[in-house]
Design brief:
Oligomer: single chain
Shape: extended
Number of strands: 2
Strand order of the largest sheet: 1-2
Largest sheet: 2 strands, antiparallel
Number of helices: 5
Structural class: mainly alpha
Length: 114
């Protein structure tokens, strides 16, 4: 994403263009709010999340934490249905069933693992 950060992207449709104008980029970075957004994304959204992920893995173990990671889309679909009032599509329902089935299958221990 660094090249796009430096180049700048304009538009959010099929007519999205990359703007290499130094003037436009100077204007973007001269606004303090844009710099605050970048600091938030870098320090809080990325830095804190990776640090907490690392700490959780050291406490609970990578396997348990990864199972929780796989449940994030399932939880998102459920919360979107109840809180946001979104409809659950057949693709979302199928993905949820496949994800939960995969988690159950991965939890089955063979005779060698016991």
């Amino acid at each position: 994403m660094l090249p796009l950060l430096l180049a700048g992207v304009q538009g959010a449709s099929e007519a999205t263009t990359i703007n290499l104008s130094a003037t436009v980029n100077k204007l973007r970075f001269s606004k303090p709010l844009n710099c605050i957004y970048l600091l938030f994304l870098g320090l809080i959204a990325s830095g804190f999340c990776f640090t907490s992920w690392n700490k959780a893995c050291s406490i609970l173990g990578t396997v348990k934490i990864t199972k929780g990671l796989y449940l994030i889309p399932v939880v998102t679909i459920i919360f979107a249905f109840f809180i946001l009032g979104e409809k659950i599509t057949w693709m979302g329902a199928l993905g949820t069933v496949i994800t939960i089935t995969g988690l159950f299958i991965s939890a089955i221990k063979t005779d060698k693992e016991k």
